[in-house]
Write a structure and sequence with these properties.
150 residues, alpha+beta, Immunoglobulin-like, 2 domains, four-stranded antiparallel beta sheet, 2 helices, 9 strands, elongated, self-incompatibility
Length: 150
Amino acid sequence: MKRGRAVLIMKLIFVVCTAIMNDVATAKGDHADRILPLKKKMTVINGLEGNLQLTVHCKSKDDDLGVRVLGPGQSFYFKFWTCVFASTLFHCSFEWPGSGGIHRFDIYDDRHDYLDCAYCERLVKPSGVCKYTGRTKKFDRCFHWKNESM
């Protein structure tokens, strides 16, 4: 009786996992090979002072999110699926009046961000990008630009 119950439980787990993976593949297109998928939401905020507009262009290997222009304090967000065994990377370029050119930053990288946030927030400043920390409730993890303006 115990063996039959164990087999039934294993079959049930298999069916549930298959259904979840099918939903993920349907929602995103082609990620059914991922294990433990997590939906992430990324918000990018214009933190420039002086009433400056921020031009943002974000993309990954698979998705180009297009160019956005954010007014002072404005934000935009995007959603995506990621996974413990995947290598999701979204990188963005930023430009604003007087910036001296284009600045780049890896806005989301599984290697660093997978466990940090489900609702990720990034504040763009002239010196770089600051990540919101849930523990402190502040944008206190700041990073300089990936490469200086070109």
